[in-house]
Amino acid sequence: MTTGIRFDGVTVAYGGTTVLESFGLTVEPGEVMALLGPSGSGKTTALRAVAGFVRPTAGRVFIGDRDVTALPPHRRGIGMVVQQYALFPHMKAGANVAFGLKAHKVPRGEIAARVAEALEMTGMSAYAGRYPRELSGGQQQRVAIARALAIRPGVLLLDEPLSALDARLRSGMLTELARLHRELPDVSMLYVTHDQVEALTLADRIAVMDGGRLQDCGTPQDLYRRPGSAFTASFIGSANLLPVTVTDGGVRLGGTRLDVPAGGAAAGASATLCVRPHLVGLGAGPNALRGTVTEVQWRGATHRLGVDIAGHRVTAELRELRETPPLGTEVTVHFAAHDAVLLPAGADGGEARG
Amino acid sequence: MASTEALSGRRPPTALPRLRVPAWALVLPPVAALGLVFLHPLALVLWQSVSPEGGGHGFSAYADVFAQAAFRDALRNTVLIAAGSTAGALVLGFALALVIAFVPFPGGRAVGRFVDVFLSFPSFLITLALLFVYGSAGMANGVWTGVTGAASGPFDFLHTPWGVLLAEITYFTPFVMRPLLGAFSRIETAQIEVAASLGAKAPRIVRQVILPEALPALAAGGSLVLVMCLNEFGIVLFTGAKGVTTLPVLVYGKAILDGDYTGACVVAVVNIVLSLALYGLYRMLTTRMDGVRRARA
């Protein structure tokens, strides 16, 4: 069984529009790689290039050590799960799962066992005799996953598989997918999503995409704690992005000097300081900043404070406060030096996303 | 004090004047119109068919007509040509609709729209066009004689049942394509892509994914074409009348050429019964298919 995926400088263009540009990425055998990005970032195009539904105008796609760039989809040996399930409506769940096995000319006697095994794996054994319309969205997606897994693919492609489900079902399916990943350690999964929670929960590594290009790639923890760019910082979780100037041994935000490791940045250079809202504290402390409260949101377990500091908005995600500061009052917020990341300049300052 | 209607700017709904005419009376005008323009002439045809020229009423005219070899030939020709044309239109229509719907090619959308235009063409136009291509002095024979130097070409089938078959398939294929293109447009592309990713080649995808979804449209188009072929007059008259007689042509021959109105009415009644029987069969099949689909839903 070939496994693992490699994009080697893949470019895809429709007419004169390039939707994926010189894309290079390796998904290791048994790894779950999430392609995360906003709409139009090229993530689905990358997945479709692996499936064989778009032909790269340049570059090559490998599954395992096989160059599949010119292979038709039916010869690639992949399993695919899509957002809208795409079950065959005239076939019962069992027949849907058996479809790929028949296409692969699996011996008749073996098909029933493999269908049962795939349905068992996804918890759908009791529903083999039902038509798709007799199943809920979550059940349909489980059958779709069973159908993809039944052919025992080396590579499983998942294109926003949970987008059509409500929040509760999505959470349950995420757990199921994580369990499947543990039970199928040899299967490489390419998981396309625009939902950072799905990517953070499921992926071994995340490839962040924007504008048809790969922006960043790393483990969820690395990308969250040490993002490589302002785009990654703002797309994975929330982030305060503040424009600063590098000084000797720190940075300066307006007139306030902050004790932040500058890394290799030269003194005088412009940079963007990234601090996660939940790492900002209220009151005196290291790297204290004075500002005016512009917004207070109660979020159940937390309060979210918006503070205007020298024209830049800083968001603090605080454990529920007994007393909240009134709007317009002056407060001090702070953050620890090791919780801040200095990024190349370019992002809008002060905006928290997520 | 201002009323609430005046304050809200709304006016109470104006009550319609109560009709004192009973509901059943409202049905009378359309039923009378239908009876006058359709049912009455049909009844006259039926009545004439059981009113032989010798006087009285009975089914002797039916016995006479059924005994004629010309009638049996016409009945056989009608059923065979209609069945053959329907089968041909179904196969060709399905294949062409598949290409237009699923194989991207330049001008594909224009071809799809042309199918709609084609439906408005008169049937004799297609027959005339075929005469230009395959007639004794048509293009095909012209090319043949030009290339080989022969005195005449080999294409001489337009006045045979094969000519009628070709013309009817050509003319009625778009009637199959139209509902099929509609059905194909409702099939999720993702289903086809997932089927391909699961290892299915094109023939399996067509057979197991596309065809089952297109069956109702195929049945609708096919039954429409079958009924239209059974009653087709222009194409047969224009193309094959010399050697091919169908029931509608026989009605024309008996009524207009022979002046045998009773015999013409008998053949017409047989033609109507045949059409209704096939329509009934179609309704039975589609009702059964709907039942299956509802059961799945």
Automatic annotation (TrEMBL), chain A:
SUPFAM superfamilies: MOP-like, P-loop containing nucleoside triphosphate hydrolases
Keyword annotations from UniProtKB, A to Z: ATP-binding, Nucleotide-binding, Transport
Pfam families for the chain: ABC_tran, TOBE_2
A GO molecular-function descriptor: ATP hydrolysis activity
Keyword Nuclease: no
E.C. no: 7.6.2.9
Protein name: ABC-type quaternary amine transporter
Protein's organism: Streptosporangium nondiastaticum
Automatic annotation (TrEMBL), chain B:
GO process terms (BP): 2-aminoethylphosphonate transport; transmembrane transport
GO cellular component: plasma membrane
Membrane-topology annotation of the record: Multi-pass membrane protein
InterPro entries, sorted: AminoethylPonate_ABC_perm-PhnU, MetI-like, MetI-like_sf
Transmembrane stretches, start-end: 21-47, 79-105, 117-137, 157-177, 214-241, 261-282
Transmembrane helix in keyword set: yes
Primary location: membrane
Presence of keyword Transmembrane helix: yes
Keywords noted in UniProt: Cell inner membrane, Cell membrane, Membrane, Transmembrane, Transmembrane helix, Transport
Domain ABC transmembrane type-1: 75-282
UniProt cross-references to Gene3D superfamilies, sorted A to Z: MetI-like
Localization per Swiss-Prot or TrEMBL: Cell inner membrane; Cell membrane
Protein family membership: Belongs to the binding-protein-dependent transport system permease family.
The organism's taxonomic lineage, starting at the top: Bacteria, Bacillati, Actinomycetota, Actinomycetes, Streptosporangiales
Protein name listed in UniProt: 2-aminoethylphosphonate ABC transporter permease subunit
Pfam families listed in its UniProt record: BPD_transp_1
